[in-house]
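WARN no homologs supplied; continuing
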Amino acid sequence: MKGWIALDIDGTITLDKYKVPDEVVSFLRKITSEGWKLVLATGRPYAFASMALGEFDFPYSFLAQNGSAALQMPDKEPLFTRYIDPSKLPLIEAAYEGIESDFLIYAGFEKGDFCYYRPHRFSADELIYLSDLQKRQKESWREVTEFKDAEIGAFPLVKCFGFTHQLTQIADRLRATQAFNVAHIRDPYDDAMDLLLVTDRTASKGLGLAELLHRYGKSGLVIAAGDDENDLSLFDVADVKIAMPHAPASLHERADFIAPPTAEQGIIRALKMVFHDHHL
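OK structure emitted
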């Protein structure tokens, strides 16, 4: 075994929400056959991510919704989940005090990755955005009046959306509870919106990667690549860190390599640079 390679999906290995370039798929297939263990880590739910990974017919580990759930692919074998207990919902509600908006609750891959949402809490413009989001991810959502009436069990992720200043306030309140991991990222498909991806405090991309290393053994080099704030936790675990050129300064400051542009399949060239520098 040569080591581990943990890659973000959107903006890192592809710009297309429904497909990874054939050149990238072929390269990743080749290096896994040569002894690298591949991990794909994403903020997407499993159902949405699987649309882009249809050509991945070789072994890899999949971390869905910022490390809330792990599956071994392509057999879809569940490995572990790190979900939010519904008793913590009042903490999320409190973070929205005085803010005229709302959040989405993802039910998890076991339930088909649908969302609970409260339409009456959103503005007309927000409902348009939600309609686009639902169509983009091809999900069925469950409309509720109040979350407490929906008998929601443990769930992997809460998604908040809005403008930067508003989400910064919500993120600060959530972090103050010390009950959650909160990643503030750009919406990769809508430049006007920011997102908060809220998971249990035991769940992040990096914590998921660390769990895989613990289970299967940290043998060889650990390489991680990403393009947004939720990838920083991968950098915490990796020996070698790759940031995409459009990533925020927080990633560039910690990166060992800056990859060429994603549109040019830059992740391939970046990984080859790492292999060359480490004589692999």
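DSSP finds nine helices and 14 strands in the chain.
OK
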